[in-house]
Amino acid sequence: MKIAFLVPYSKRHFYQICGVSDLSVKGKDVWFFKHMPDRSIEVDIIGCLTTFTYKKRVPLVIVQIVSLLPFLRRYDVVISAGFFNGILFSAMRKLLRLRKPAHIILDTRAIGVLKPDRRMIIRIARYSLSPVDGVVCFSRNHQDLWEKTLGFSGRVVVVPWPMVEDLQEAWPVAGDYIFSGGSTRRDWRTLISAVANTDANLIIVAGKDSATGKYGLEEMEIPQNVKVLRSVPRQSYSELLSKSRFVVIPVHEVVTDVGWDTLSQAMTLRKVVIATRIPPLFEYIIDGETGIFVNPGDVADLREKILFLLAHPEETQRIGANAKRVMEDTKSGRRAAGETVWSMVQKLCNNMPN
User: Fold this and answer.
1) What is the value of pTM for the model shown?
2) CB 108 within 8 A of CB 261
């Protein structure tokens, strides 16, 4: 069986995310593919020239898809990594009336784009997505959108977010600082305001938000107890996170999946995470047990939780240990994703018309 995997960035960047520096490694040996039971599969990683903002990415993704079209007959399945290139490929498939190969979307953004009350947009989306054969989601609220709003009942599976593997754990904690990092929809203003005029030391590693192309820190006054870094290498990011006292993931009030990568890294490394209370994170955080929730945009609430953890190191150990156990329980995250997607792939291929 041969699979084309459409990623929304370059192949080199995708491999770096997977912790692989050698581009000669076969596609079936990275991400969830490495956990698929059938090792005879072939996986081609189809990369895309990158840009930070989604609006500017449209022509690049179209080029990615058009370049794949002449070779479609080679593949049994096309898997789109993300809603954005998924809907574009589906629309192209519908336009050209292509029945094969099967098409699966790994959804990481649809719920942030498609509001159920926007009837015209939903109609267009349902029409464009009708050729899609299966959807893989990473949280229940995404599944609800696909099944109840987009009409995909029976064609959606939910798997754990694929954890970052081979993280080096620094325990006991070596640093005396709080860590926060990420790019998409980060609420840096609330976090910085929460630690201002406190004894807390904070390191922020900010990346460019794909929706705006900005870091989100522009024209913001940075206190002396806050150090801001921008777009550091992934290894440095993980090292800074690993040596922190605990982690804060401040995001704006959204329903889409943001913060999962940092959350899974932090919990795997036995770190307490203070996170904004948004639906996608409900899958992993039990407030006060496996992490701590704060209300969106609430400076006073965030400051109170930060000061509490600073004053109660025993709580960072207790909750951090619980978080580690959650990640151990879902250590099969990549394996589960691989096995579940493989099961879907087999079912779709068996049902494909000749």
Assistant:
1) 0.77
2) no
